[in-house]
Amino acid sequence: MNFYHNLITTKSWQALINLKKKYQFILIGGWAVFLYTKALKSKDIDLVIEFGELEKLRNEFVVSKNERIKKYEARREGTEIDIYLPFYSNPGIPAEEIKNFTNLIEGFKVPKKEVLALLKQAALLDRQNSLKGKKDLADLVSLFRLNDFNWQQYRLLTSRFQLRKQAKKVAEIIKKTTRINELGLNVHQMARLKQKILAGMEAKND
Cα separation of 95 and 163, whole Å? Predict the structure, then answer.
């Protein structure tokens, strides 16, 4: 099941492909999750880039600064790009740290899935009662249910970046979640998956 209309996600994906041809970046957000899970496509594009690449983007996009969230926003013909910069932005962990934990998938540099989960957690807590927050939860659960998700690494990173309180809040949200239709998870399936996720999040033997 799709979260957004196919026309919207197709346009966003094509814009992302075009960006990859011209700029250097680390892809985060919903599209990065999709590359791992193949579950839910995205409509927004979220990037970590260096300041030099930001200046190049200004030649092609209208770029504005969002001081409150510590990010930049690039817009052109319906394409929306949120831009996070090292030593300025913190989309869940400091943006400059993300480059230390990356993989290459389908030609895109993306955070390792455990780091990506930390970024998705931050997004979820920031907007949990919104439509985007609902998508964040689905994205996060789709990462957590991957067979090769490394729970020990996740817990170590949670400690390293002092995010234990955040993780506990996310665990409470997951405990209250009874189904996620967009992932095809009914009440019974969600109950079983929830046990696995909570055990991974809350293990104390590291």
Answer: 15
Q: How many helices (H) and strands (E) does the chain have?
A: 9, 7
Tens digits of per-residue pLDDT, 105-149? Answer: 999 999 999 999 999 999 999 999 898 999 999 999 999 999 999
This prediction has a pTM of 0.95
Q: Is beta strand 79-84 parallel, antiparallel or unpaired with respect to 45-48? A: parallel
Burial class of residue 100 in the structure, from the number of CB atoms within 10 Å of its CB (0-12 exposed, 13-18 middle, 19+ buried): exposed
The set of residues, in sequence order, having a beta carbon less than 8 Å from that of 110 and lying 6+ positions away, is 26, 27, 28, 32, 35, 36, 102, 103, 104, 116
The helix/strand/coil state of 74 is strand
Pairing of strands 71-76, 26-28: unpaired
